[in-house]
Amino acid sequence: MINIRNLRLCDGLQENAEIQNIKKILGLQHGKEYDNVKSLRYGHLMIMADQDHDGSHIKGLLINLLHSFWPSLLKVPEFVQEFITPIVKATQKNSNNVISFYNMPEYEGLGTSNGKEGAEYFVDLDKHKKDFVWADNEDGEAIELAFSKKKIEARKTWLRALQAGTYFDSNEKHIPYHDFINKELILFSMVDLQRSIPSKVDGLKPGQRKILFCAFMKPIFQEVKVAQFSGYVSEHSAYHHGEASLVGTIIGMAQNFVGSNNISNLLYPSGQFGTRQMGGKDHASGRYIYTKLTPITHHLFNKADELLLNYLSEDGQSIEPTWYLPIIPMVLVNGSEGIGTGWSMRRVLSPVTFQGSHEHSRIRLQSSSINRQYHHQRKGESKPHSPRLPQAEK
After folding, report:
1. Which residues of the chain does CATH 3.40.50.670 include?
2. The CATH fold of domain 206-375
3. Of these residues, 167, 288, 290, 324, which one is catalytic?
4. What is 9-196's CATH number?
5. Helical H runs in 35-109?
6. 10-residue block means of pLDDT along the chain (394 residues)?
7. 288 belongs to the catalytic site
């Protein structure tokens, strides 16, 4: 599913399998106004997505699809619905009493539920079924705010105004579209930013930080298969996403061709990790290539600084820190790029020097500062000189 707002039919929309299947299954006619569902093949569209932030994104994309092409359907009572499942289930010791929770930071996907639990959900359908309702024009404005490319600046203001503890009460039977956008989808947008934009402190995204954490914890001084290491990372760092993405991140951290990593690939590439000509996409499968920590990684991330790190906790286990403390600013050294909600980043720097100008002070990284005192005796900070690049937006 893609964000179809502001796209035309000729932009590949007709080739999108998910959208075409939804049109075919429901019997939707392009450009038709609907004040009831009599002409459709089904009277309801029920969204059954995982109870995590990515599930919220899927719900938002479907609502955005309807609002873009068939906005009248959003106003039909009880047409758009969602099916929710428990996020956490607590069982009393020596008892069959089970308490389900629907508003918790942890989550489980639909695949986690077994057949017995699935039957229980459908027996009590009213408890798990929620109806989306159109209240007023504020609903349409909220949907446009979240997905329109014309609302980039407004979207930034929207995200900045998010308050801690925001969530949608699962006890509510009806969900106004603007409440879904402002109390649920906004949480995905914040997580999307955290995943996509690297930290200024260590230059890493959360997935990369989890990999480095597990590389230090194992530790991988001897070569290990990338596919095998990805399983270790998934197990010991509470990684909740696909392993194909994790393997791709490990490979990216080990690539050393020109244009990939300037000062250091943090992991060693043993095998075919891709070439400059193909931008690294021609790497071998994770089953056939190996990696390990490079010697310089332990110098960049000094073990003596571990006492300063704030390690996170998830699913009852200690995982990676909020950020590491490299002895030099890795976000400037290796550069980084990412596209989040409202913001994007692309920083590609010279592997030799940071050239200053009249607008930007010169960055001086003296060899004497490349030690643990870097964090206590900084000589100064400035922005590197680089050409302005166009900002991409999701």
Report:
1. 9-196
2. Topoisomerase II; domain 5 (3.90.199)
3. 288
4. 3.40.50.670
5. 53-69, 71-74
6. 71 76 91 91 91 89 93 93 81 73 54 71 80 93 92 92 84 90 92 89 92 93 93 89 88 88 83 91 94 92 91 87 92 82 73 42 36 40 38 44
7. yes
